[in-house]
Structure formats: structure tokens, C-alpha cells
Amino acid sequence: MEKPLIAVTMGDPSGVGPEIIVQTLADPELNRLCRPLVLGDRGALERALAITKLPLSLETVQETGPLRREPGVIYLRELTRLAPEDMAFGTPSAAGGDAAYRYICEAAQLCLSGEAKAMATAPINKEVLNRAGHHFPGHTELLAQLTGTDQVVMMLAGERLRVTLVTIHEALAQVPALVTRERVLETIRITDRALARYFCPTPRLAVLALNPHCGEGGLFGDEERTVIAPAIAEARAEGIDAVGPLSADTLFHFAVSGGYDAVVCMYHDQGLIPLKLLHFDDGVNVTLGLPIIRTSVDHGTAYDLAGTGKASAQSMKAALVMAAQMAAMGTGTGKG
Fold first, then answer.
1. Is 187 annotated in some ligand binding site?
2. 279 annotated ligand-binding residue
3. What is the pLDDT of residues 191-210, one digit of tens each?
4. Which of the ends of the chain has fewer CB neighbours closer than 10 A, N or C?
5. For binding substrate, which residues are annotated in this chain's numbering (predicted)?
6. Residue 255: which of 111, 137, 112, 158 has the closest Cα?
């Protein structure tokens, strides 16, 4: 089987994206799994190679790259030629934000056309993305618009734990009103379809409660009885293996022990605290519900480390490996 082409976006050129990409692509294992194509800036990548002192070379390609690839070569589609001041380490610029936007759009188009089988993204700066005139809270919302997708779900994943989120970047005080039956049900559905297609044929899902001790019979809140349990019942009527509501203070022990394939969480920190406790360095952010495969690092631009060569590339490598694995699984049959 032909190795899948994976579009790798360089992210914010002032951050650690270029460095963690070249470190990742120095691993020959990646070339055995897939054909990475970096979408970015030659100057930024050349600088990253100089910093990391890796024995790699860059080859600029206009097409999606040769099927037969030389070892030690990074294949690049050069989309920008940024001035040094526009990619100064730790100093994000509007030009850099616009560049990051262009890399994402190109990767999405490659995936939509079928030329690329997946995309893996390095971190961006949401503030400079908006300063450049692209008004999106982040990758997820931009990709939803580019692909015409109404409902998406954020999944954070590692080898031991996967979590998906009903609500993401909202104030904690707003979460109860946002946890609706429809939103919980749609999160369960999207999680089930994606896991069945890309990870395991018959997913077992745990759905968490919102309140401590599942509301303790209504003493601490009744969202479990009025919202979450009805959503789970409807999902089960559709043939989805989902159980809950389950108390978050004990559930993760059983999930990590192999009892469940993913945990549906009601809010950001409920899922990300245990995930990052286990997978701080190698966690992967996956956008579920898109018509394309998108994985990403589970960290930010790390401006304090940019230019030092000290940033860990584990999450970038894990994102690329997961993208390749999902691409291979997605060619088969499933519920997605």
C-alpha cells in the first residue's frame, strides 16, 4: 500500500513549530509510516536546521512530492518568504499570523482534494491570527469553515487515555447552561463515529457527570438526571456503547486501566487535567467530525523556548504518527 501523504503545517514562524518539525522529520520512522510534506517558509526551516544541528536538507517541491523519497530530505512546499523581522523568535507578527493561516488553508485544500490523506499542525498564535485579519478563535473553527462542517469535537489522546469535550474554551460559570442534551448527544455520536472509523471498531464510551458525585441525587445539581442521562439513553438506543453519567473523581482510574476507549467530558479541565498528567509531552489534539483527518500538537507556540533547540518534539511526532495511523485505518470500513 502506498504510504499516505501528510500535510504538515509550520505554524507560527516565531514559535517552536519549525524546530519541532525538523526534529520530528529527522526520525526515519516517520518516513516508513508516511510521506510528510511541510507547508511553510524555507528561511524559517533553514534557521531551525541550523539551531538543531540536524544533518538534513530541504527540497522545495511544487507538486505533492515524489513517491520515492531520499533519506535525510525534508520536502517543502514554500508558501511564504518572510523577512527576518517577521519571524523573530518570541515576537509574533501579523505577517507571521497571515503565514500560519495560509499554511492551514493549503493543507485543508490538499486533504479535501484527496492529494493528502491527513494534516498535522504545529502551534499557532490566535492573537496574531486575528491581527492579520483572520477572525477565528483557533485551528478548529477555521477548519470547520474551510470544510463546511457544522459540528466538531476536540479530542485529546495518548496511548493510555482519550478524552473528548462537550464544552471547550468557556468560562466555568457558563458551562452548566452550555451542557445541553443535544450537545452531549452530538459529542457522543461524533466520538463514536470517529473512534469506530480510525481507532477501534466497537468503541466503549464513558460519559462523565457535570457535578460532584453525579449530583448526589440532586443535592449538588440535577444536570445528570435532566440532561446527561437522557442524552446517553438516546445514544444507546442508536446502538452506541455509552455508559454514564459517571463520577469524574473515580472514572479515570478505570479508563486508564482499559475499561473504556474514550471518556466524554463536560468541560475543558475535567478532561485535560488527567490527560496532561499522563501525556504532558506526547499528547495529541485531534479534531473529530471534519471530513478530513487533522491532528495537532497538544501545546502552544512556546515563545520562551523558540530558538533554543530545547523544545520537545514528542507531541509533534505523536501527532504525525497518529495522522498516519488514522489515514491507514480510514481507508477501511467503519461507522464514519
1. no
2. no
3. 999 999 999 999 999 999 99
4. N
5. 139-140, 276, 285, 294
6. 158
